[in-house]
């Protein structure tokens, strides 16, 4: 019995050694990164965003690029094509026109534009229209409900956010004068801004309720709101602001105008006029196709 056990163990060892020698380890890992086949849209992004502006336009939903605090869905493919065309047409190329080259956008604009199909909601019920991460990325939400024929919606949901976040990068790169901080002084209300409606904000000297949350938000909201408003709408804000809000708004906007001109050689009215011209010519373009 003892000899049988020894013999069995010897056979097992021989089998094990033989198996190991025949099944040598491969040098190729079985753990691979997710692979996505490149399509026509990806090639278009490479040619029109990455190579021209050094900006990656992410329309596929990636865990690493998504905020796990919200329940989100991917952006619709066709709406993503429309948005990619619109961001280039109504934003990037307008700065190209005013600054004379693509270098301004290539140097200062966030390096990632990410799209999310659904809206994101905070605990207080406010819908998040867009977010930014340290000047590196802008995320635009609610792409699946986008109406490309409604310029008011496009500005309110998307381009107000884009101009707002880009303006943050500009003032963080070249600070505006501290005189701006002193105009509204202690009137900033942090999270309580949501308690104001637009009329109350304007009469207190803020172009939007959110502008009253902090001095930097006040500064960039003036830029974003001006660029996404017609002159008629802009004049209407000052009319509603009345005798108390008007002089405050004018003092702030004068600083904004001078800052953009002196620091960046950008005439904000010329920039808005270029955007308005392109809006008027939108019917001449098919934004549903990769142009």
From TrEMBL:
Signal peptide boundaries: 1-22
UniProt keyword list: Signal
Key word Cell membrane present: no
InterPro entries: LP_HExxH_w_TonB
UniProt-recorded name of the protein: Substrate import-associated zinc metallohydrolase lipoprotein
SUPFAM superfamilies the UniProt entry points to: Metalloproteases ('zincins'), catalytic domain (SSF55486)
One Pfam family matching this protein: Peptidase_Mx1
